[in-house]
Amino acid sequence: VEKVVGKYFVIVKVDVVTNPGGEEMYKKYGSDRGVPAWTVLDADAKVLADSGDGDKNVGFPYEEKEIEHYVKALKTALPKV
Predict the structure, then answer these.
(1) Is the separation of the CB atoms in 5 and 74 below 8 Å?
(2) pLDDT for 35-66, tens place per residue?
(3) 3-state SS string over 19-78?
(4) Residue 59 — φ and ψ, nearest 5°?
(5) What is the pTM assigned to this prediction?
């Protein structure tokens, strides 16, 4: 998965505490889901998927259902991969 992510995505780490504007970005590009969180945007900054899964956050996917959510997000962003 890491090779796919690095090949097809630009990864930007934003800390809601230390990056100026980080908290605003967090709120703009996803639900209030807790941290860590991630959001997949297209080239026009449209949200394709995020780490919110109903009332849960899968910001650090570990359990099988969380990993399924993450893989689904990748497939949404890159349906041909």
Answers:
(1) yes
(2) 999 998 888 999 999 998 888 899 999 999 99
(3) CCCHHHHHHHCCCCCCCCCCEEECCCCCEEEECEECCEECCCCCCHHHHHHHHHHHHHHC
(4) -60, -30
(5) 0.80
